[in-house]
Automatic annotation (TrEMBL):
Designated name of the protein: DNA-binding protein
InterPro entries reported for this sequence: HTH_17, SinI_DNA-bd
Domain Helix-turn-helix: 36-82
Pfam families tied to this protein: HTH_17
Domain of life: Bacteria
Length: 92
């Protein structure tokens, strides 16, 4: 006679719940990939002057996309720059 685990149904459902949670955790990451900031917003986040952000973008230290005459900085690129914020403040 074959013995089945009485908890198998619960384990299967837990597996589904884990998958759903994983998807939900990844969702904000996907949303942030679509988020962009102006120089002014980025300067407030980095706690540096607007001109500092502008000059770093123009030098290529912070990646940004040019849309017409405006630049937009992707959230993930800004977070990468934030990790280097000390060096950004003093990088010439």
């Amino acid at each position: 006679m074959m013995q089945t685990n009485p908890f198998q149904t619960i384990l299967d459902e837990l597996g589904e719940v884990k998958q759903l949670l994983h998807l939900i955790q990844k969702e904000p990451e996907l949303e942030l990939k679509k988020k962009f900031y102006s120089f002014k917003e980025a300067s407030e986040i980095l706690k540096v002057d607007y001109q500092t952000v502008r000059s770093h973008v123009l030098k290529g230290n912070i990646k940004a996309e040019q849309l017409g005459r405006f630049y937009r900085i992707n959230h993930l690129d800004l977070m990468a720059a934030l990790k280097d914020v000390k060096s950004l403040k003093y990088k010439r």
